[in-house]
Amino acid sequence: MSLRIAFCASRAPIAQAALQGLSRRYGDHAEQGADVIVALGGDGFMLQTLHRTQDNPAPVYGMNRGTVGFLMNEYSEHGLVERLQSAEEAVINPLAMRAVRADGSEHHALAINEVSLLRTGPQAARLRIVVDGKVRMPELVCDGALLATPAGSTAYNYSAHGPILPIGADVLALTAVAAFRPRRWRGALLPKAADVTFEALEPEKRPVMAEADSNSVRDVVAVHIRSEPRIAHRVLFDPGHGLEERLIREQFV
């Protein structure tokens, strides 16, 4: 039985050209009822596609028509059906963020990569970190802090000198961004089921914003984060180039 493939692409000309060529070659099925969704673009577009299709049971297979492409497979117009049939699947659970603003309003968002709290003023942020209801760090003076999934551990987390996490490790990386005090604090590894809260100290003097992937909330006083096991993103990779292999390989470059 032939695969019902739904294609989607970023607005980049190279991605749009790939969309036209692949659609002519393999047909283009509607996403609802498709066996697989093929996303053409970079990692940013892949994250958008995963968020947009989170209620669709079809897995997503990305092909790189962007820049970094860590979540993407190599682009080729040939042999796509065979590649899809032999692909390896990784399941990613996002983080659920509940951000509380100074005016008392709450904003909810999901993050496949990470949830971060970042300063928005000239002075460093002062944060309190609470894990499962217990204060673990009374004060962290920094440019920000983030909680990253294994899938997102090679993104902003890695740039902030956080650890790369194997996809099946069932842990989250809590990483400081430019920590000033404690100056040598390198972050922490937490169980995937942990409930983490970042509290902003002196938010009027030291304002901060929260980000869940590309969703931003300003003037935040507290951010509550937990893994969301009810949402499972199915991502496909070529054999031998799965997310687990990529996460391990990235640690030796």
UniProtKB/TrEMBL annotation:
EC number: 2.7.1.23
Homology family: Belongs to the NAD kinase family.
Record PANTHER family: NAD KINASE
Name of the protein in its database record: NAD kinase
Example of a GO biological process term: NAD+ metabolic process
Cofactor(s) the record lists: a divalent metal cation
Binding locations of NAD(+): 43-44, 113-114, 143, 151, 154-159, 178, 215
Source taxonomy: Bacteria, Pseudomonadati, Pseudomonadota, Alphaproteobacteria, Rhodobacterales
Keywords associated with the record: ATP-binding, Cytoplasm, Kinase, NAD, NADP, Nucleotide-binding, Transferase
Described purpose of this protein according to its UniProt entry: Involved in the regulation of the intracellular balance of NAD and NADP, and is a key enzyme in the biosynthesis of NADP. Catalyzes specifically the phosphorylation on 2'-hydroxyl of the adenosine moiety of NAD to yield NADP.
Reactions catalysed, as given in the entry: NAD(+) + ATP = ADP + NADP(+) + H(+)
GO cellular component: cytoplasm
Source species of the chain: Pseudoponticoccus marisrubri
